[in-house]
Automatic annotation (TrEMBL):
This is S-adenosyl-L-methionine-dependent methyltransferase. Keywords: Methyltransferase, Transferase. GO terms for biological process: methylation. InterPro entries: Methyltranfer_dom, SAM-dependent_MTases_sf. CDD domains: AdoMet_MTases. Residues 39-145 form the Methyltransferase domain.
Length: 275
């Protein structure tokens, strides 16, 4: 689930250019190690996108295991399907509504629920997500997650809010991001009946961008925060955000090398369902 809304084919190409690093081994090693998928296990990947990590999980559980990927984007799912040889089940759904939209056969069916780089798009109903996870898990099953936590994209988000306020628009209702603290998410897990582990924590991760900040804004901000504006206004506003953020997010060396970097903050951890 690249976003909580579906992506068009074109948007999913742009996503691949500006965001494919989210699937790189360097960035996914920690959460996959925490999942530690075992041969024969049944695992569901929420917000699987183009299925890069879903495939790795399927390799680990092997022929005796079963893997299901869920995403809201039809174009991402069709990419995932064509890469999978039909040995992974892919379902289209909003992960905030799972018990309402999935077949009853999935209730209590999974040893593990996995999700990476997606739950920060579930501001509408983060509790609904966790209720769905509890519905999916077998007794004793585990939930392993990583997503943007408190302080994620620091500076960039302030720049976006500032540009909206300068246009006389309240940014709060347009902001699609949910970046909880470790304590807030731990409480949500407990309130929803899961047993959070002690290891839930925030991990700052400076992340170099493959292009400039405008490319990133084009992928993640243009059709979310700035969706109601004309494309000319969107261009101007993305330029303004880039200008505001340049001081903290752009570096340049004397030999002419330069680049853009964002401070991502990962909230990573796990929880279990009681036996
Ligand atoms: C993230 O992976 O943390 C993220 C990506 C795009 C927009 C916001 C957050």
């Amino acid at each position: 689930m690249a976003h909580a809304t579906s992506l068009s084919n074109h948007q999913s190409e742009v996503y691949a250019t500006n965001a494919s690093f989210v699937y790189s081994a360097k960035y996914t090693h920690a959460v996959l190690s925490l999942l530690d998928p075992q041969p024969g296990e049944k695992i569901i990947d929420l917000g699987c996108g183009t299925g890069d990590l879903t495939l790795k999980i399927k390799d680990a559980v092997g022929d005796q295991g079963e893997v299901v990927g869920v995403d809201s984007s039809e174009s991402m799912l069709s990419k995932a399907e064509s890469a999978s040889d039909g040995n992974i089940t892919y379902l289209q759904a909003d992960i905030q509504d799972l018990p309402k939209v999935l077949d009853a056969k999935y209730k209590g069916a999974f040893d593990a629920v996995f999700t990476s780089a997606v739950l920060h798009w579930t501001k509408r109903d983060p509790r609904g997500v966790v209720e769905g996870i509890s519905w999916l898990l077998k007794p004793g099953g585990r939930f392993v997650f990583e997503f943007g936590g408190f302080g994620n994209t620091v500076g960039i988000r302030s720049g976006i809010h500032q540009v909206l306020r300068d246009k006389g628009v309240d940014p709060e209702p347009l902001d699609p991001w949910y970046f909880p603290t470790a304590a807030q998410y731990t409480k949500l897990l407990k309130d929803t009946g899961l047993n959070p582990s002690e290891d839930i924590a925030l991990y700052p991760r400076p992340t170099p961008l493959p292009g400039d900040l405008k490319g990133w804004l084009q992928t993640f901000v243009r059709n979310t925060f700035f969706a109601a504006f004309t494309s000319e206004e969107q261009e101007t506003m993305m330029g303004q955000v880039q200008d505001i953020c340049r001081v903290d997010n752009h570096w340049a060396d004397e030999d002419g090398k330069e680049g853009w970097e964002i401070m991502y903050v990962r909230l990573r951890g796990s929880a279990t369902k009681s036996q």
